[in-house]
């Protein structure tokens, strides 16, 4: 793919001020002293003891000893990308937020994808909730939309968050398992916290094994407020809709990928952007008028509930394009301090009890992890000017001038000056608040099963099969039979059919409980009808010497024109020759590649294949077929489909005299389908 020129980016220009290129420079200490020898410690004689006075050694090792900051307790495994956001048309009727007004203005953004449960070294394809956190560098300050790829959460009140994470993390007696929910303490927590039932259904769906970062939805999870210039308020939920649709891995595939390529997700987006491509999402909002706050059969402030899109449609208001990789993962992705409390005029908080506790916890976390002055780091600093009387603290590098560090003052004419709301100063929405001090959950938060049933009703047949299998796998790993039984009983309140299928698999009694009576469904929750495109899909091309170069060249050219990414695979990483002696450069060998890495296979074959090549091609085809992916065979390789007994199978295309002229188009049609879940 031809690399496209990168657009100028104001945030990039700001970060560039702090960049350092060491290429072809003289080696110095951090104080600028030139170093003559960086190979040997200063010693008393060649074989004598090292000397403590060696300031070069002390600086180098003491810095190395501190190269890592504390790992995030959750969302430790993350990857970040820069881009831009643009609103489609002014949202002034809803909000006075400046970045949502002018369609001609691009707002720089930084997006950090992450996993919740695993440590920093966990594989990226494990079953887990994914973080989807966007920092908008607006002209009024930073707005951070810190959410997940699932619209609901496990708990209603943030006071229980430490308990949830203690349960989901590796068990403390043996620190097993890593980045997995398939163990006793997690499911014991679920069984004893019925508010987690809805989330339980989502995490057992394929949403928690996404195909790529680029095919995940993002959600703000919480209910926020939009405030316009007249002081009118609307409740809002934020959605990110991927241009490529919502697609996931299948379970067997995700497990194997963890060993084949634990960096599978970050490699995909890094390679795409490095080659000049972009990852695109549209921003949508669901809006409820203030007067309609209590008209629903759920509480709109309950983070374990979603707003069904059929009842509250999603309005698409803008577009985000990710198009620039980070220069240094630690300095940018690891040190980025995302915080749901970072808001701008026109956006405000609600009384969602989970959101309210996050507003404290995230500040506390960033202070601990990154330091007192984490806001000054290039990745966190706003693009607009910022002035206040805060001073000092660890790692302060802004050099404040003058002798005034307080308010009110006369020496500096009481500056920095406060800004009235009419000139852009932040003004908290003057909501009326009353009530007794009490530790209690609102009765409107009490229904834990209706939306879980709504989710189940909305799934296609194959999604339901995958959920049942996920429950059976996860609970099958739970050693406590009592916990398994409790969870099956809980599932029964959602669906007796689902609970019975799981109970039979894991050896416990069927649930003797009344299931939810909800019959409604929400088609928007199913991935079965998501957008299906061939753009940027990756096709593995299996080829050997003596291949049909004329037909192959035509197919590969047309696939590339459709923006399909091709990886040529053969026995060795050296060019192969066609029947007409045309050469085709090989990208990977059977040894260095894997069928798991491709969205489809094109089996070109070649003349007189040796037994090793035949066996490898068959192995690739079996794996792809088992994962429901499209496979196409040119005439020379048709015998492989026949010998494997898949000729005529769903999504399997074999070149014949009759379909030769339409072969490529038929393959592209199959490729757009991506998975053939009815395949047996």
Automatic annotation (TrEMBL):
Q: Which InterPro entries match?
A: Catalase, Catalase_AS, Catalase_clade2, Catalase_clade2_helical, Catalase_core, Catalase_haem_BS, Catalase_immune_responsive, Catalase_large_C
Q: Where is the signal peptide, in residue numbers?
A: none
Gene3D superfamilies, alphabetized: 1.20.1370.20, 3.40.50.880, Catalase core domain
Needed cofactors = heme
Q: What is its EC number?
A: 1.11.1.6
Mind listing the UniProt keywords for this protein, alphabetically?
Answer: Heme, Hydrogen peroxide, Iron, Metal-binding, Oxidoreductase, Peroxidase
Q: Which stretches does UniProt call biased (Polar residues)? A: 16-33
Domain (Catalase core): residue spans on this chain: 28-415
Alphabetically, the GO molecular function entries are: catalase activity
Reply yes or no: does the keyword Metal-binding apply: yes
Q: Which Pfam families match?
A: Catalase, Catalase-rel, Catalase_C
Write out the catalysed reaction.
2 H2O2 = O2 + 2 H2O
Its annotated function is as follows:
Decomposes hydrogen peroxide into water and oxygen; serves to protect cells from the toxic effects of hydrogen peroxide.
Mind telling me what this protein is named? Catalase
């Amino acid at each position: 793919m031809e690399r496209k020129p990168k657009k100028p980016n104001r945030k990039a220009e700001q970060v560039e001020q702090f960049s350092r290129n060491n290429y072809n420079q003289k080696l110095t200490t951090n104080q600028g002293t030139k170093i003559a020898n960086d190979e040997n410690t200063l010693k008393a004689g060649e074989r004598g003891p090292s000397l403590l006075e060696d300031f070069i050694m002390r600086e180098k090792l003491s810095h190395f000893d501190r190269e890592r900051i504390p790992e995030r307790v959750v969302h430790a495994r993350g990857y970040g990308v820069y881009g831009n956001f643009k609103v489609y048309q002014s949202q002034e009727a809803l909000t006075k937020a400046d970045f949502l007004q002018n369609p001609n203005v691009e707002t720089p953004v930084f997006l950090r994808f992450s996993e919740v449960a695993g440590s920093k070294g966990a594989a990226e394809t494990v079953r887990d909730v994914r973080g989807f956190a966007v920092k908008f560098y607006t002209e009024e300050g930073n707005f951070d939309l810190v959410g997940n790829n699932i619209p609901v959460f496990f708990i209603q009140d943030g006071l229980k968050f430490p308990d949830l994470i203690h349960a989901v993390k590796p068990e403390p007696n043996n620190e097993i398992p890593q980045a997995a929910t398939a163990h006793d303490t997690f499911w014991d927590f679920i069984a004893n916290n019925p508010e987690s039932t809805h989330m339980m259904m989502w995490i057992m769906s394929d949403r928690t094994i996404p195909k790529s970062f680029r095919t995940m939805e993002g959600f703000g999870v919480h209910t926020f407020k939009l405030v316009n210039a007249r002081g009118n308020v609307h409740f809002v939920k934020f959605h990110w809709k991927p241009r490529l649709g919502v697609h996931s891995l299948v379970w067997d595939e995700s497990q194997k990928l963890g060993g084949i390529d634990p960096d599978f997700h970050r490699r995909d987006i890094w390679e795409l952007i490095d080659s000049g491509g972009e990852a695109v999402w549209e921003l949508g909002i669901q809006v409820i008028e203030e007067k309609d706050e209590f008209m629903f059969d759920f509480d709109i402030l309950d983070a374990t509930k979603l707003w069904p899109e059929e009842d509250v449609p999603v309005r698409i208001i803008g577009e985000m394009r990710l198009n620039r990789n980070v220069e240094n993962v630690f300095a940018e992705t690891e040190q980025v301090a995302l915080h749901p409390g970072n808001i701008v005029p026109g956006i405000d908080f609600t009384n969602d009890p989970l959101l309210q506790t996050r507003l404290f916890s995230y500040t506390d976390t960033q202070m601990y992890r990154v330091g007192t002055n984490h806001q000054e780091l290039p990745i966190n600093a706003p693009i607009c000017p910022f002035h206040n009387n805060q001073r000092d603290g660890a790692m302060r590098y802004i050099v404040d001038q003058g002798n005034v560090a307080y308010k009110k003052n006369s020496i500096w004419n009481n500056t920095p000056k406060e800004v009235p709301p009419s000139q852009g100063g932040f003004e908290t929405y003057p909501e009326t608040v009353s009530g007794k001090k009490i530790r209690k959950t609102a009765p409107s938060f009490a229904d834990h099963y209706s939306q879980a049933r709504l989710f189940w009703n909305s799934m296609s047949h194959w999604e339901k099969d995958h959920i049942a299998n996920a429950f059976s796998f996860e609970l099958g790993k739970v050693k406590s039979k009592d916990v398994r039984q409790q969870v099956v009983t809980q599932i029964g309140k959602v669906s007796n059919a689902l609970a019975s299928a799981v109970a039979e698999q894991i050896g416990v009694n069927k649930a003797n409980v009344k299931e939810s009576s909800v019959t409604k469904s929400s088609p928007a929750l199913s991935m079965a009808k998501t957008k299906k495109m061939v753009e940027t899909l990756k096709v593995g091309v299996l080829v050997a010497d003596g291949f049909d170069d004329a037909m192959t060249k035509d197919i590969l050219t047309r696939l590339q024109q459709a923006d399909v990414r091709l990886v040529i695979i053969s026995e060795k990483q050296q060019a192969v020759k066609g029947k007409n002696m045309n050469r085709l450069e090989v990208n990977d060998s059977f040894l260095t590649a894997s069928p798991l890495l491709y969205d489809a296979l094109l089996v070109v074959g070649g003349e007189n294949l040796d037994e090793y090549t035949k066996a490898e091609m068959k192995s690739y085809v079996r794996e792809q077929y088992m994962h429901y992916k499209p496979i196409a065979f040119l005439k020379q390789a048709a015998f492989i489909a026949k010998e494997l007994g898949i000729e005529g199978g769903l999504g399997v295309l074999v070149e014949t005299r009759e379909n030769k002229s339409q072969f490529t188009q038929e393959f592209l049609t199959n490729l757009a389908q991506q998975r053939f879940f009815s395949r047996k």
